[in-house]
User: Fold this.
Amino acid sequence: MKKILAALLVGSLFANVACAEKLLVGTDAGFAPFEYKDTETNEIVGFDIDLIKAIAEAVGDEVQIQNMQFAGLIPALQTNMVDVAAAAITITEERQKQVLFTDPYYDVGLVMVIQKKNVDKYKTLDDMQGKRICSQIGTTGSILGKQVEDATVGEYDQIGEALMELKMGGCESVLVDKTVANHYMQQQKDTTIAVVPHLYNPKQNGFAVAKRNTELQAKLNKGLKTIRENGTYDKIYEKWFGKQN
Assistant:
């Protein structure tokens, strides 16, 4: 009898392992504090990374992180190269035509970063008319920049490259997520640039999956709901951003 029970227990354990899925998660590890490479460990870390791992764990799955360019994330979902895109992706109507999003998990908005010497000169996005704006390719910052009358938009693979172009005088402003801008300022302690406080295009971030993958969308939403209810979300949020107001 004991042998039978032991066999059943082992079988049950193997069944649970077999049910667990490994989700291939695409990200762009150049967008701190959401996702970036730790310089000491070379591991990809960040708010999004901790969050998607916690969500997967809540539904009994595991994740494997794949680093790629932001502009390639949606095509990677559409061609089954990755299962999930976790890269501070803002939920927009245009993107919703291409992929499915989970329930929102973070509120976002765009700010202008300018050279500090221009704080009295550039106060709103209207001041960028006819000027050159820098942004990361494929982001909402790039989309917003292209709506500015007579402005030209320089697009870069990484937001750090756009900020460096600003510092070198190659553009008049960078349009980037407020959280990323503030994190950069805190980490770099750069006194040559400044964040214009006005918030543009307030929206929300979500994790993305392929348009047909409603089952995975539902599973991720279930996991997100679980970690919100059990306090895990709040702990991860506080780790990266401090206590919520």
Summary: Residues 6 and 209 are 40 Å apart (CA to CA). Residues 1-18 have pLDDT under 50 and may be disordered.
